[in-house]
Amino acid sequence: MRERPGPAPYILLAPFLLIFAVFIVYPLIRSLGLATERSFGPGTSDFVGIKNFRLLLIDPLFWKAARNTLVFTLGSVFIQLPLALLLALALNRPTLRGRSFYRLIFFSPQLVGLVFSGMIASLMFEKRTGLINKTLHGIFGFSLDYPWLQVHIMPMLIITALWMYVGFNMVYFLAALQNVDRSLTEAAMIDGASKAQRFFHVTLPAIRPVGAFVVLLSIIGSVQLFELPFIIFSQTPYGGAGPDNGALTLVMYLYREAFETGDLGYASALGWIIAVFLFLAGLGQLVITRGEKA
Amino acid sequence: MSAARNATKSTLTHAPLLAAAAITLIPIAWMLCAAVKSGEDFKWLFLPRGDGFLGIAWDHLTFSNFTRLFGEAHMGSAILNSFFVSSVSAVVATLACAAGGFALARYRFRGRGPITVLVLGALIIPPPLLLAPTYELLYHLSLLDTFTGLLLPGIAPAFGVFLFRQATIQSVPRELLEAARIDGCGELRAFFVIVLPLLRPMIGAFMLITFLMWWNNFISPQVILQDPQKFPLAVAISQLKGVYYQDYGLQMAATVVSVAPVMILFLLLQKEFIAGLTAGAVKG
What we know:
By secondary structure, chain A is an all-alpha fold. Helix content of chain A is 73%, strand content 2%. Chain A has helices at residues 8-34, 51-57, 60-91, 99-107, 109-124, 131-140, 153-178, 182-190, 195-223, 227-234, 250-261, 264-293, and strands at residues 37-39, 45-47. Chain B has helices at 3-35, 64-70, 75-106, 112-122, 127-140, 147-151, 158-171, 174-182, 187-198, 200-216, 219-224, 233-238, 240-244, 248-268, 270-277. Chain B starts with a helix and ends in a 7-residue tail after the last helix. At the A-B interface, helix 1, helix 3, helix 4, helix 5 and helix 6 of A face helix 1, helix 3, helix 4, helix 5 and helix 9 of B.
């Protein structure tokens, strides 16, 4: 029997299509136009062509923001993800008791959210009064004045993000590990493969697709870092992006240009640079995973 | 394997895990302690020491930070705003996405292919790119500084449509819909009476993550709202500093109040939460 749905699918899709057209498609097209304009708040703009992009490339603040963002992204991928995998491996032992208890705890910071984590971090990393310096001082004799919020801003942000997201990424890895065919590892064991050999030649290849996905998610999230530094430094006397713009990220710079300076055009040009970069990262991931299958 | 060796092995696995769990929980414990301390007692790392039970000066602890929060700092309205914004979005977005996802999965109609491509394509748009043009659009629509302007752009997210499309393919059998049709059930009625109940697991998970996303959402209310009476918790809390700089007790009390509802929801609905937050990822 041929189905004759009539108008039903259109009615069901109408709310989505309407919102999508007005608040995704239109702004997306408009952002292309805006990127060629210079504006002073909404409704007042001049056409400047590709000048915004030319200015961005020689803008030292853009490069500072790009460098900070890159450092944070590398920290997320190369420090946070291996730790998440280690935790997942530890939790994946079949004889382990209390797995769901651990999973609950490791996952919980994710719920605190970026804004509220930023609030906690802004106080914990304070000189003298913050818990971090007091603890490091008590155990290792670190200086109580170690300047997390003044100088070592990116490590401070990487540590905070580590606390927030390591459990979240662990959940993905754990799910992937539990899908690894046990007969494969057992066969390798019978063949006399060592623990390390089993990990690198059986387990790791089996969880690679999920691993690639988690890396991509991590890059996408890290490149868009905004709330954490914004909140942390709104709670300190430095304000803005911290001393010497040490916490300035690409999206923070976009926010500042759009809503503090009022130049929606320059901000849109910056938005396109971020979008193209992320698109290339996604494409790269696709090419790498496809290449492996072939 | 001997019992002794077993015990050593179990200690070896549990020691690092317990250490990691402690590190995870310490900031939360520290926040809880700071929220009930005041003045001099901040010289103690966690709770003030004294001669009460467990060597803690229980009588020093105070709820004054919380009373000040609702009194002078006006956080009461921020809590209501957060609940309003998060629950309205959660309910409306779930309905809109379930309807759209179901239609894409189970109907053949003109335009289905292109719409599916659009839904997938929208997933790769980074939200910051749309920040400036959306602000400009809301300005022209006179929707800046309104809840409508805040909520409208996010009430039918493409990733939700995608998730519900996958969920429908997995759990809504075609045969059931055909049977309903033969029995004379209208298409829209079938959606509400047959499809929605079958999608219940995804509905629970999606409502929870949408609620959580809006509860923790900062950038859109920060950009769109101007009237402090309308601020949700995330924005209100970021402005405490102006007046109350280094008022640790007040800042942490505000954070406790902001985080507690989500934590309680999570403890009650753990499974749905983890399913929601990792939805579509592994199988996607």
